[in-house]
Amino acid sequence: MNKLLIYVRQALHMMKEEKLFSGIYITGTALAIAFTMVIAVVYYAKLADIEPEVNRSRTVYVLGMRMTYKDGSSDDWTRDYYDPTKVKEWLYPLKSAEFVSAIIDPGTFVRDKFYVTSDDGRIVSGVLKLVDANFFKVYHYKFVYGRPFTQEEVFCEGGDPDASKAVGIISKDIAEKVFGKGVNPVGKTVNFGYDIRIVGVIEPTSSIMSESFGQLFIPNNEGAYKAIVVLKEGCTIDDLRRELDEIAHKRTISNDKWKYDFEGSVQPHAQRMMSEGEELSSWKEILVSLFPQVLVLLLIPALNLSGLVAARMKRRLPEMGVRKAFGAKRRELLHQVISENLVLTLCGGAVGLVITWLLLYVFRSWVFFAIGNNTYTLPEPMVEGEMLFSPLIFLIAFVVCAVVNLMSSLIPAWMSLRNPIVESLNQKR
Question: Do 286 and 203 share a structural domain?
Fold first, then answer.
């Protein structure tokens, strides 16, 4: 322990004496950690179980049945979406699902914006979401006032909402713009072409959560659904596919013209968010796909740092030769070099974390939407604490970077310390 403290003091003294080397080393380490962290945090924000999307690891999206001609007269195919009857008969009873929510996918079939008039006459706009009652079981929103709407309120008789039945849920930020701050809007109405009675108010969420983000939620009693399935504990996506294949088979044998299947329709959350053509259904697969990018980000600065350490060790050979002449073992000298570089790496890690926060905050509108599959325009995202700093993500990034830096300093240090004492002393000439 005493030796470690001595090494740390020597490292701090060395940083003062060799400011250029220390500055370059810390900057290189900081940038490597920062860029690695930025990628890791973006993927974490899009893929981890974070409120309100707390079921991402068990979430699967079913985009509708594929229709092809039975007689093979054409290679063309189209997508058959679910109407309310199909949702009730096919999707809600799925045995492998804990929850099933059927929604209209914004930006694909309907407008994704709403416009309402505030009490003082201003036009207020936001992101619209047409959902069913199960949507608020799949996603965990914090209700400031009121409640979610019920399934009975979703499926109005006849399929069309009327003034007495049309309900909605609004986010707190929009409610304050429309009704004023401190006002409980439950029971009040907003005009959306027809009057919508507010039954609940939720805390605003970040648009990074693109699947759950909305500022006005109204019941979806139309067709053209996307189904969001939360698998039961112990059930797999293959169990879900088997059930869906049975549904498609029954539909096929009852139809003379069309063959139905779910090919390309069933997407785990990771695949839905990150890529359309490649299935990434687990963290393991995601990490493997990210490995080449992270490796490049870490190896380039590591090679540069290795050259710096080698040049510095060459200048220190006389010092090491004198210490070896007075009995210092190679292992002790190596521990000193490693400790010095570890102190520099710790400093670089702290600077890298600050750079990460700055990059994620300043460029949040680009960074979080540049990676992934976003099908419609979203407002500037809120960047919250849990997204900005995940201790596990930072620890993994720091450990990986520390190991790479250790190797970049260990190899040239080991090669230099193998020199005979006389040769090391002669370097002074």
Answer: no
Give the single-character DSSP code of 382.
Answer: P
Whether residues 324 and 415 share a domain: the answer is: yes
Residue-by-residue DSSP string for 360-407: HHHTHHHHHHHSS---S--PPPP--HHHH--HHHHHHHHHHHHHHHHH
Query: Is residue 394, in this structure, part of any structural domain at all?
Result: yes
Query: What's the CA gap between 236 and 5, in Å, rounded?
Result: 52
Domain span at 192: 117-126+139-211
CA 139 → CA 163, 365, 381, distances in Å? 27, 23, 18
List CB contacts of 274: < 8 A, sequence separation 6 or more: 43, 46, 47, 280, 286, 371, 372, 373
In a domain, 32, yes or no: yes
Question: Using CA atoms, how far apart are residues 118 and 101, in angstroms rounded to an integer?
Answer: 31
Number of domains in the chain: 2
Provide the token pair at 44. 């974490």
371: Cα within 13 Å, side-chain hemisphere: 17
C-alpha closest to that of 56 among 214, 291, 283, 217: 283
Helix, coil or strand: residue 170: strand
Residues 6+ apart with CB under 8 A from 331: none
- What CA–CA distance (Å, rounded) separates 203 from 213? 11
Q: Which two tokens stand for residue 355?
A: 């750079």
Tens digits of per-residue pLDDT, 89-106? Answer: 888 899 999 999 988 765
Q: What is the pLDDT of residues 212-227, one digit of tens each?
A: 999 999 887 766 568 8
**Coil vs helix vs strand at 299:** helix
CA–CA separation, 365 vs 249, rounded Å?
44
> Residues 231-280: pLDDT tens digits?
999 999 999 999 999 998 888 888 888 888 888 788 888 877 765 445 55
Residues in the chain: 429
The listed range with the strongest mean pLDDT (12-16, 162-166, 226-230, 363-367) is 226-230
Domain finish residue from 211, 235, 264: 211
Residue 409 lies in a domain: yes
Tell me which DSSP letter residue 88 carries.
I
- Asked which of 211, 229, 249 is the last residue of a domain, the reply is 211
Distance CA 54, CA 5 (A): 44
Whether the bond between 52 and the residue before it is cis, its omega within 30 degrees of 0, is: yes
Does residue 148 share a domain with residue 38? no
Asked whether residue 317 falls in the same domain as residue 411, the answer is: yes
Does 301 share its domain with 205? no
Within-domain flag for 24: yes
Task: Average the pLDDT over 140-148 and give the result.
Answer: 95
